[in-house]
Structures are given as structure tokens and as C-alpha cells.
Design goal:
Elements lengths: L1 H39 L6 E5 L6 E6 L3 H5 L3 E4 L3
Antiparallel strand pairs: 1-2, 1-3
Length: about 80
């Protein structure tokens, strides 16, 4: 019975180690993809122009890192000029 119990524990341990190894590989892959995404992301624009609903008039100008500009979908990148 002890030999049987030992084999069961070996099999369960091997399965659990394989599962943990898969989790580690998945986490490493996701981290690698996140870093690659950050590397290829275009640089943040210096300024953002927010247009009105009709896209004809300008509602506001934001700096590129403005938190309010991130919430709007009606903006276009711009230069200081």
C-alpha cells in the first residue's frame, strides 16, 4: 500500500509541477508581449486638439499627457506650432 501511495503522490506532484510550469510560461509570454507592445507604441503627442461634436470647431487644447484628453475620442495630435 505504501508503494501505491508513493506512486500516486509522484503522479500528482508531476501534474502539479507541469501545471505550474505552464502558468510560469504563460506569465513570461504575457510580460514579453507587454514589453514588446510598449517598445513599438508610437510616442505620445506633445499636444492634442479636441474637436466639437460636428468636428468643425475646436473645443480645447490639451497637453499630450492630460488625463481629460484620454477620455475623449474627438481629439487629434498636434504640434506646438
Amino acid at each position: 500500500m505504501l508503494q501505491f501511495a508513493r506512486r500516486v503522490i509522484e503522479q500528482q506532484s508531476a501534474r502539479q509541477l507541469a501545471l505550474i510550469d505552464r502558468w510560469i510560461a504563460d506569465e513570461e509570454r504575457q510580460e514579453r508581449e507587454r514589453r514588446q507592445g510598449e517598445e513599438i507604441r508610437p510616442p505620445q503627442p506633445e499636444w492634442l486638439i479636441q474637436h466639437g461634436l460636428n468636428r468643425a470647431n475646436i473645443d480645447a487644447a490639451h497637453t499630450g499627457d492630460c488625463w481629460a484628453a484620454a477620455k475623449s475620442e474627438r481629439w487629434r495630435p498636434a504640434t506646438r506650432e
